[in-house]
Amino acid sequence: MKEEKTEIVPELSLEFHFDILLKIIKRTHSTYCYQLKELDKINDQN
């Protein structure tokens, strides 16, 4: 579930303000960036 929330933010940020999206998914900017990096690592391994 965490991954899904993190993955959808870039898509929704085209329509909604980034800070609002982070509040909705209950993430700080730093946590969001960390999770995004981790997802990139996983995707690179596949």
Question: Top keywords for this entry?
Answer:
3 helices, 46 residues, mainly alpha
Describe the protein's architecture and organization.
- By secondary structure, this protein is mostly helical.
- The protein has one domain.
- It contains three helices and no strands.
- Helix 1 (2-12) packs across helix 3.
- It is globular, with a radius of gyration of 11 Å.
- The model has no long low-confidence stretch (mean pLDDT 92).
Share of helix, binned? over 70%
**Class computed from helices, strands and strand pairing:** mainly alpha
Q: Describe the main β-sheet briefly.
A: none
Q: Which radius of gyration do the C-alpha atoms yield?
A: 11 Å
The number of distinct β-strands equals 0
Order of helices and strands: HHH
- Count of spatially separate domains: 1
Mean pLDDT: 92
Q: Quickly count the helices.
A: 3
Distance between the termini: 20 Å
